[in-house]
């Protein structure tokens, strides 16, 4: 992981918000676009930057590509901590937990 790519990825508020959503649950581009005032292609560009920096990974499941946080990344561990104390990040983390529980419930 190149440190410059990580800092570039974290420099964007929408990308930090995307990371907050992905803390607890895997989401598709359309899932994320529904939570932002942004088009799916714009979300895809943000996800591409996050993936290129090694902060998220993607996996095709049927017709969808799901994105998840790379939990083994020290940067993501630190980002998770920062989002916990950040007034903007805390509600996003809560919503991520709720989404995770809904996806696990049959």
TrEMBL record:
MF (Gene Ontology): DNA binding; DNA-binding transcription factor activity
Domain of life of the native organism: Bacteria
InterPro entries noted in UniProt: ArsR-like_HTH, HTH_ArsR_DNA-bd_dom, HTH_CRP, HTH_MetalResp_TranReg, WH-like_DNA-bd_sf, WH_DNA-bd_sf
Gene3D superfamilies linked: Winged helix-like DNA-binding domain superfamily/Winged helix DNA-binding domain
Keyword Transcription regulation attached: yes
Keywords associated with the record: DNA-binding, Transcription, Transcription regulation
Spans traversing the lipid bilayer: none
CDD domains: HTH_ARSR (cd00090)
Domain HTH arsR-type: 1-89
Stored PANTHER family: TRANSCRIPTIONAL REGULATOR, ARSR FAMILY, TRANSCRIPTIONAL REPRESSOR SDPR
Protein name: Metalloregulator ArsR/SmtB family transcription factor
Originating organism: Duganella aquatilis
